[in-house]
Amino acid sequence: MTPADQQAELSALVRALRDHVEAERDLGARWFAAAAPVPNAPSTAARVRSRDIAAPRPDRAPPVAASAVPRARTEAQVGERSATGAESAVVAAGTLAALSSAIGDCRRCKLAGGRTHLVFGVGNENADLMFVGEGPGRDEDLQGEPFVGRAGQLLTEIITKGMKLRREDVYIANVIKCRPPNNRNPEPDEIASCLPFLERQIEIVRPRVIVALGKFAAQTLLGSATPITRLRGHWHTYRGVKLMPTLHPAYLLRNPGDKRLVWEDVKQVMAELGMSR
Ligand code: URA
Description:
Layout: H1 3-32, H2 44-50, H3 75-79, H4 88-92, H5 96-103, E1 122-123, E2 129-133, H6 138-143, H7 150-162, E3 171-174, H8 188-205, E4 209-213, H9 214-222, H10 228-231, E5 236-238, E6 241-246, H11 249-254, H12 259-272
Helix pairs in contact: 1-7
Bound molecules: uracil (URA).
């Protein structure tokens, strides 16, 4: 190794170490130790949690009666579309389980052939808070669950260490449900095929706040071409639901110095949900 190579390697090591220390500082000092609980007072996170599972929110649309949810789709039904272009079985699905079964072993776009698992979504059907990402990566494709790889671990830290919630308190989904080859960006026809599923997931969960993770989630839900760097940090509305765009965890893995921006956005979300830090 030449002296120049050694110098380059040393610089790379110093850079990596600095990024790591900054990441630990941002995550550790701010997210890990963020909330000092008030003695004997239920934390707001606990209150957010205690509202969970099956407690219907008064402002929720009544669920579609189970009898109205088709148990199995005929070939003809698969092709039936509503005025918005979504299939009738998707529109009729009143629960996430019914929606998942309406989607079935999806072959509606060209991503179907390359997937291991369709990654539907995970979490609390009655969540106040919903995270929407771009689409499954390798780990998600293999495990069938969103945000379980490295970017997912970072999202989990934001939820658990930053917000003091559990992953199962929130709902997590993606714009597209199948992994694109080599994790390439989703293509417009793939987004168009999959979007009705996310739209219905949001209608069923009816979160109070959506956090759109990264450019694809934010731009797709907002129907906007504005860069994520300008969208993030400001409140938007998706069909009456407050939506906060923020940077994607995968971006944060490459740019840990920007975690502080995400923390700013997360603090706004916590304030909106009445959560203390
Ligand atoms: N990135 C995403 O956008 N979604 C996942 O589920 C995993 C990584």
